[in-house]
Amino acid sequence: MPLSGKKLHVSQPEPVADSPAGRACLRAEDVEVPRARDVRLYLPVLDGSDQMGVMALTLDAVGDDDRRLLGRLAGLVADLLVTKNAYTDQFFQARRREPMSVSAEIQWSLLPPLAMSVPQVKAAGFLEPAYRVAGDSFDYALNDNILHVAVIDAMGRDLDTAAMATIAIGAYRHARRVAKPPHSGVTGPRATPMAPASSSAPMPGRPRW
After folding, report:
1. 134 CB-near residues (< 8 Å, 6+ apart)
2. H/E segment holding residue 169
3. In this structure, which of 38, 69, 162, 201 has its CB flanked by the most CB atoms within 10 Å?
4. Would you give the distance in Å from CA 203 to the centre of its chain?
5. CATH code 3.30.450.40 region(s) in the chain
6. What is the pTM of this model?
7. Whether 174 contacts 150, CB under 8 Å
8. Distance between CA atoms of residues 129 and 123, nearest Å
9. Each residue's pLDDT tens digit in the chain (209 positions)?
């Protein structure tokens, strides 16, 4: 979906499948489309490994210096999106194709980044149906060499179900954060994560479940 704004040329939405913008998004790589008089470029806008969107622009010609500069520009755009996303609804509204239920609004606001990638491990998740999800949720955290993962499935499709999942996620995060870190000198009780399904995997080289 194009993002509107002052002095921006607002184009039409492009499908993720079978489009240059979609390839840039899915593969997280620059896509160049030569045309008769210019070159159309699509650059992934990434916050670490989290896909924020795609930046599209047109140049008369593209050289290596242009590619390096545009890569930095895409990184700056990602930083701006992350910063401003905390106090505006415009980015949410640009991405949505239909109204979202109150339950889904609550669940999406609770989620961690949908994708995380570090040398030790990669993690990704999503919720379906995106606009009507109620009791489904997930959470994860990478602390030192341990990946903590929880999957929540509260029964039902109403607002009470979303509230139940919210409490479960909050309890799980609390238990995870007050637990004694491994190999530390801190003493105290270790809390038990309160979630229907959870896992903590040490990662000396590859994660184990």
Report:
1. 101, 103, 104, 107, 154, 156, 157, 158, 159, 161, 162, 165
2. helix 159-178
3. 162
4. 22
5. 20-95
6. 0.71
7. no
8. 20
9. 566 666 666 677 788 888 999 999 888 899 999 999 999 999 999 888 778 889 999 999 999 999 999 999 999 999 988 888 888 888 888 888 899 999 999 999 999 988 888 888 999 999 999 999 989 999 999 998 899 999 999 988 889 999 999 999 999 999 999 986 655 544 444 444 444 455 555 554 444 43
**Angstrom distance (rounded) from CA 154 to CA 160:** 9
Question: What is the Cα Rg of the chain in Å?
Answer: 21
Fold of 20-95: Beta-Lactamase (3.30.450)
Q: How much is the pLDDT for 115?
A: 86
What does the angle CA 46 – CA 48 – CA 50 come to, to the nearest 5 degrees?
60
Contacts 24+ apart (CB under 8 A), 111-117: 111/137, 111/138, 111/139, 112/138, 112/139, 112/140, 112/141, 113/47, 113/48, 113/50, 114/50, 115/49, 115/50, 115/51, 116/48, 116/49, 116/50, 116/140, 116/142, 117/48, 117/49
Give how far Cα 118 sits from Cα of 69, 112, 135, 167, 200, Å: 25, 15, 29, 29, 17
**Residue 120: strand, helix, or coil:** coil
Copy the structure tokens of residue 195.
Answer: 């979630």
